[in-house]
Amino acid sequence: MLRPRSITGHLRLYALALTFPILLASSFIGWAYLRQEGQRINSLAERQAQAVALQIDSRLAAFQATLNVFSASPTLLEGDMDDFRSRPEQTDHPSDVWFTVRDENGQQLLNTTAPRGARLPAFLGRGDPVIFTEGRSYTSDLIWAPVTNQWAVTLSVPVRVPAVTGKVRFALTTGVPAAYFRKPLEDVPQGWIAAINDREGKILARSTAHDQSVGKPMARSGWEITKDVPPGQGGLWQDVYTLEGTKVVGAYHRMASTGWLIGVSALPEVYEAPRRNIIGIGLTLLWMALLLALALASLMGQRITKAINVLQAKAAAMRDMKVIDVSRTSLDEVNTVAAIMRNTAQILRKRQDQQTILIQELNHRVKNTLATIQAISRMTIRNSHDMAAFEQAFSARLLALSSTHNLLTESAWSGVELRELLTKELEPFRGGPHLLLSGPAVTLTSKVAIALGMAIHEMATNATKHGAFRAGGGSVRISWSVSDGNLTLKWQERCGHPIVPPSRQGFGSRLIRQTIVRELQGTVDMIYNNNGLQATFTIHLSVDDNIKDQAEAGVDMEPV
Q1: Where does the signal peptide begin and end (predicted)?
Q2: Which of 32, 86, 222, 426 has its C-alpha lying 20 to 30 A from 40's C-alpha?
Q3: CA distances from 205 to 99, 151, 194, 264, 379 (A)
């Protein structure tokens, strides 16, 4: 089921949105095509109407020429109708065409369809004033011929006696059956309908259903459009219906010679074909575009969703500090983000491991510090005569321990320079004596720095009580060197008074041996000369900070 908020759903909506301008463009193209096809159909209708009019004019002109020749016949001018009758019968003309001669009273003097000697009826024609009064030729509308019993049209010319300059004595007429005019309509293409209508709007000939249509009035809608159109002009008609009620479109033209109306119209199978074609093609293309767009949107949505799932897996792994490898996706951007997340997970994992190590190290150091403080307090109180002496000694040793811790904190417990450590620890004792420091740059680990810092503090405290720092004039020289990973530090005092070696090992000496020998696996060598104490400390600089903490090792500061 399509979820509107899913990637695939958004892509499908986007695909549908893209088809909208395509639909608009297709509609415009279809409209232009239909307009062009409409113009083509109208143009074809106009040409067909004019072509039919030309053919009819040509046929009528041929009859007109024949009548003009006959009208100058001497036998006709003399009124010898029996002799004149042989003339039309000898000419080459359609067999269903006939000729008549009437006088100005309408009496037929000759009718080629009637037997010789037959009594002929008299009638006045609608065109008689034109023929006898104006002396011009006349083409009738559709009439019912009583002698031949068929629909027909007549062409009449005046016959002057004498010829040309005389009075009009007769009307020479040829009768043409309406079916004769159907032949020019046979050239109309399939799917079209053509009709010839007389001046009164009666159907004279029709390309389809001719026999059933002749003599009937043309369709009312067409008559209303064309009844006032002057001869020689035409136009287009839309929404016109045939006698059968079929809606047609086409063109009309009123002949200049006869005033007849030629109508040529396209049936729905012709003028609706372009619309059906464009609608069919348009719908097919639209459905194909929609299906293709939706299929591509679904395919791309699946690929993007698969890539997003990879990122989700990577994000979950990064949340859990795990590093996982997944297959590459088809999207370079997702692959780049996945690689970044993998690297980030590795970095976070390393930081977590480092943090764990730091917490463990901090825990060890806190335990070691507390064990050291506990041992210092226990031994200090054991060697103090009263609380005031304990407070003074214990506070001094805590300050020494604190000074070393401050230096380590400033370096993030990465190590302390030996010279900096000595300067810091001996700073409270530099008021009087002269202090000399000499040696190369040496970086001490945190464990070595703490232990050595406590030892130096005890040496300075001892020098304050009994040695070089006791009175003015004394000096202390501290020198060191490094060889094969071992630090050798020498403490040499020069006193201004003789010193007396101690009769027993005090707390300071035990603390020094405890930190240097037991904690750092080093050596301590102390020599009491008359002019001052000389001490040599040998320490392994490679002592690991992560060795078992003092609390677990059982630090008790007892004599060794």
Answers
A1: none
A2: 222
A3: 21, 10, 8, 12, 143
Decide which of 159 and 329 is more confident: 159
Query: Which tens digit of pLDDT belongs to each residue from 305-359?
Result: 777 777 777 677 777 767 667 677 777 777 777 778 777 777 877 877 777 776 7
HEC string for 416-451 = EEHHHHHHHHHHHHCCCCEEEEECCCCEECHHHHHH
- d(CA 30, CA 280) in angstroms, rounded, equals 11
State the pTM of this model: 0.56
Q: Read off the pLDDT of each residue in 111-135 and give the average, rounded to a whole number.
A: 89
The interaxial angle of helices 418-426 and 387-410, nearest 10 deg, is 150
Taking the C-alpha atoms of residue 103 and residue 171, their distance in angstroms, rounded to an integer, is 6
Domain annotation for the chain: domains and CATH numbers: 290-375 (no CATH), 383-553 (3.30.565.10)
Would you place residue 506 in the very low, low, confident or very high pLDDT band (cuts 50, 70, 90)?
A: confident
Encoded amino acid at 95, one letter: S
Sheet holding 434-438, edge to edge: 434-438, 475-483, 486-494, 532-540, 523-529
Distance in angstroms (rounded) separating the CA atoms of residues 22 and 376: 90
360-382 b/e with 16+ CB inside 10 Å = b?
Answer: eeeebbeebbebbeebbbebbee
Helices 446-466 & 418-426, crossing angle to 10 degrees? Answer: 40
CB atoms within 10 A of CB 135: 12
For tokens 């200049």, the residue is 256
47 or 384, higher pLDDT: 47
Q: What is the pLDDT of residue 375?
A: 60
Which amino acid is residue 150, in one-letter code?
Answer: Q
Using only C-alpha atoms, the chain has a radius of gyration, in whole angstroms, of: 67
Task: Quickly list H helices, 386-515.
Answer: 387-410, 418-426, 446-466, 507-513
360: enclosing H helix or E strand: helix 332-382
Do residues 243 and 45 make contact, with C-beta atoms less than 8 angstroms apart? no
